[in-house]
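Dear U.,

For the methods section draft, I wanted the exact inputs and outputs in one place so we can describe them consistently. I've listed the two proteins in the order they'll appear in the manuscript figures. Please don't edit the token lines directly; just add comments below if something needs changing.

First protein:
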Amino acid sequence: MKKVLIALAMTSLVAGCGNDDKLYSGVDISSKWDARSVCQTARMLYKRSQGEAAAKPLYSSKCTVSKLTGELPAKSWNTPYAATWPNGTALRVYVDSKGLGLMGISTEGIPFGWNKAEDMTETSVDGHIQICKARLANVGTNIELIDTELYADKSGGKAHFKFLRSPTEQGTGKCLFDTNKVLMVTTDRKADYSLLN
């Protein structure tokens, strides 16, 4: 009987780990700092800084790690990365001899200042908008661009869309992009995030 219970417990534990791994994606900083360890440590640092209430939504949401092209303040030699969550939380992190450090918090996605500023061209903006529309096609039809806003420093911008979820239900979407790529696509439903990014 004990052997059966132990086997069930181990099976449950392995299954739980597999499901947990689906919450982490993106780049690894090093062999020691994979996406999972970066996300978990960044989340812990965020909790220390902002409190348990702010960090709680991050524990059951997917975290993605991406490399940033901008430099850290104070002429740091460390390479910056971002850990991001669907609710818009973005944490700028780096690794040094002491471990993972936190140097930047945003609640509206990755700020454009965290990446290098380059001039946006009309061609690149149009390309980003087409990518955004293609992603929104995963959740709706008749996708229309409402407006586009480029940032003053020309490091990126955002676009707003409207679309039909069904013949009688309309949805709205937002797309954030920098000079190189589309950073994030969101809609008025959080459940759409995994289908868009």
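Second protein (the one for the lower panel):
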Amino acid sequence: MTFLCCRSDSIDENLALKQARVLIEDAENYRSINHKLDKHSLIMYELSHGLRLTILHRASLVILFLLPFFEWPSSLTMSSDIRLKLKPPNLPCGVTEGIEFLCLLIISIQSILLSGAFGLPWVRENPWLIGKYIFLVIYLLDLIVSLSLRCSEYYRIRRLIRPYFLISSSQLMKKVLKCYRRTLPTLFNLLFLLGFWLISATLVAMCVFNNPNRDLTKNSNTARKRFIFCLILVGISPEKGCLKFFTFGGFGLWYLIDILLISVETVGPADGSSFLRPYYDPIVKLLCRTNFTVYAG
């Protein structure tokens, strides 16, 4: 990013005001300020983030996600009643493909304007924009294949590419994916510890409450029948069934959340800053003393 620095008598006031306005808008909308600030780059940058092109870009994304309801094979009908035997829409070949091409053209124009405003070095360091160009080419090739086969193919690769355009156009979605990438190792450790707790508790319960003299052929479907009876009782007489159902569900969820919180405290940092540590600190210390701690990778 380079500012235009000259003598005070030769400064282009309009360009300076435009630079200041663009930078303020970038700060307000949490956009990158690494773009070029010369006259032509600012024109391309304003066009790419202008109101008209932004509305067209968002509308094209919405249309791309609504097209599967009308593309073949489609199950969209005016009513869900199977007795009416309504036929789904069967648009002629080329209608949805033409709409897709227009949406693809709008996305390509915005990407090209952004590339011109930021410059080639920034494009090389931006994997999202490079991936968008690659997927645009794949999307266009798949669209040409569909038209050459007269829209008779069943598998369409471009349907899997459409979510990428939405993610690459949203800063919030990019940050969410970045957070997922950073926290997945800790999350897997937490799920492993939670599963170990549940499996251990299940094995202990099976050993403690096992009855070796019971008739397995007689009571093989007891648990399934009791569960179905509980659901039927909730539907027939809610005043009796809901009490049993919510009591069982409440205690089960309470124990499960307790195990989950203990797992979080065991996997998390032991700095004493968590508000849960005063309640679960004895259990966590016992687990750490028995070398049961799972460290986040």
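Candidate sentences for the figure legend, describing the second protein: Residues 171-208 form the longest helix (38 residues). Residues 1-10, 270-276, 291-297 have pLDDT under 50 and may be disordered.

Thanks,
Y.
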